Amino acid sequence: MAKYSLRHAFAEALVDLGKKYPNLVALEADLQDSTQSIQFMKAFPERYIQVGIAEQNMMGIAAGLALSGKIPVTHTFACFASMRACEQVRTSIAYPKLNVKIFVSHCGVSAGTAGTSHHAIEDIAIMRAIPNMTVIAPGDAREMRQAAEAAIRYDGPAYVRVGAGEAEDVYTETHHFEIGKATVLRDGNDATIISTGQLMYEAVCASDELRKQGKKIRVLQMGTVKPIDREVILEAAEETGFIVTIEEHNVVGGLGGAVAEVAAEIGKAKVRRLGIQDRFSPVGTAAYILGEEMLTINDIIVSLLEFVKE
Amino acid sequence: MAQCYDIEYLRELARQSRIDVIKMLEAAKSGHPGGSLSEIEILVALYGHVMKHDNDNINMKDRDRFVLSKGHGIPGLYAVMANLDYWPREDLLSLRTVNSRFQGHPDRVRLPGLEASTGSLGQGLSIAIGYALASKLDNDAYRVYCVIGDGESQEGQIWEAALSAPKFKLDNLVCILDYNKGQIDGFVKDVMPLEPIADKWKAFGWHVIKVDGHDIDELIRAFEEAASIKGKPTFILADTVKGKGVSFMEGLIDWHGVAPNKEEAEQALKELGA
Ligand SMILES: Cc1ncc(C[n+]2csc(CCOP(=O)(O)OP(=O)(O)O)c2C)c(N)n1
Q1: Which part of chain A is CATH 3.40.50.970?
Q2: Is the complex ipTM higher than 0.95?
């Protein structure tokens, strides 16, 4: 299987979208290489707004641009967009339902050795709690490109997570990203793994491994965490009874929280949440951190088997 | 280029708007009289003469844009716009009631005609910059005006915005400071001093004009000067009096966020010649 950098997939997609949508403008807060917005800058210098290290101002400017009929796309790290500029996103953008696209790089622990200050394990929970906001976390380059276009076409505020590293290709040509719809990556009725973001690869590998042992584990990629696809959770609850969620985020309030809310409301499935267990993520390479946080393929398998046996 | 205007008409607009502010706040039994009264002449100069806008066509493409960053001062804007036939004056009395379009802080989704939803201080100037940038991208389609408060100027985001507008050479943007010297917990000079304000904005790269914020002629001249400045945004330091027009409110911090009761409102209305 091939790998591809999600940042680059997104940046390339944005340049294509820039050709298609003349009113698309990009904003950057001094991270043009890291976010790869430099690609848009080179293609459309006149539609590129460098605001400096001022994320709050960036969100406000984006609001004003959206009010004038532009499609502003903001660039910065997930931690800064969701936390430093949280209230600007809520009040200046989401409250009047403005058409601003907040693409955030270095989501989850993908900033790795840069340190915990640069990790974002709270952003899904924060953004999910803001009315009018759509929250998207693509898992591979194909899903990233499709999600970028879907977010730009959608009329309203959207928060899109972009990992810093490379992601293994999982999506096949037949898979299609649609806002609010999960993608079924593997069939099976023994249990369900629901993933979001890049950990869909680990989820699929765990399922494939267990299939060799005769266990058929369904895998659903929740590319959109909000609005959540209640329908597939309902089916998984009824048909498989056990749901394991996996995400590069705190288990509090993220995908696990969202799935557990739906499952509890319908009262039909047991849910186990894998992710960062409500502590600040340690420092190291992203792969090291995922190991420490028990988010490897093997961890998923062990956890799932234990869970179903219990 | 000075256009002619009827100063008596504008003064009357200001007087009538103050009367409406008092009536609204009395009816709502809450709201912010101090900052709603201090900003009136600024709003009257803009909506009554300077700005290009049309109450019959609120979405007019090239209308000038106005952002009230100090959103709690919205009763003043509701009143001025009512007097310019944006909405019936009677409707103003529904201020702060359930389902009213006239919320305590502006909500542009409920009340089209407003250009921004503000209320959380510090955010409006950035929004105005977004409008001004869009106007530039569309070949200077319209001008943008933003009123901020002096207390509000303690917010960091104001200075992020102040730093950025000159970089983008937004000569289509005017930021007006309603310098009424008061905030909630006291005088600005005691809570967190801002002076020298003009020097700060000059140092940030703005064209700075000082005016008496209750002198409509002076305000209009300042807006005309701003329109003639090329390559940089203009900051108008409008010297105002908090609670202007009502003797027992003028200059008093206590009237920042308290509505007048029936007797107080009657007294205020009498002074305003209602
Ligand atoms: C971010 C934020 N913090 C606090 C408040 C509460 N608040 C409302 S008005 C006000 C004082 C504003 O003072 P100023 O900007 O000088 O306004 P004015 O005197 O013109 O009414 C404060 C602190 C708020 N609305 N937003």
Answers
A1: 3-168
A2: no
* Tokens linked to B96: 């702060």
Q: Where in chain A is the domain with CATH 3.40.50.920?
A: 183-309
Q: Tell me the nearest-neighbour CA distance from B9 into chain A, angstroms.
A: 32
Strand pairing class (B173-179; B144-149): parallel
Residue B184 near ligand 1, beta carbon < 6 Å:
yes
Mutational pocket test of ligand 1: of B38, B152, B191, the residue with most ligand atoms within 8 Å of the beta carbon: B152
In terms of phi and psi (left: phi > 0; alpha: psi -120 to 50; beta: otherwise), the region of B5 is beta
Looking at the domain A183-309, which fold is it?
Rossmann fold (3.40.50)
Question: In this model, does residue B141 exceed pLDDT 90?
Answer: no
Q: Is residue B64 part of a domain?
A: yes
pLDDT recorded at residue A1: 67
What residues does B67 pair with on adjacent strands? B146
- Predicted TM-score (pTM) of the model is 0.95
Reference B197, options B175, B177, B216; nearest CA is B177
Distance CA A117, CA B19 (A): 52
Q: What is the pLDDT of residue B4?
A: 86
- The CATH number that applies at residue B215 is 3.40.50.970
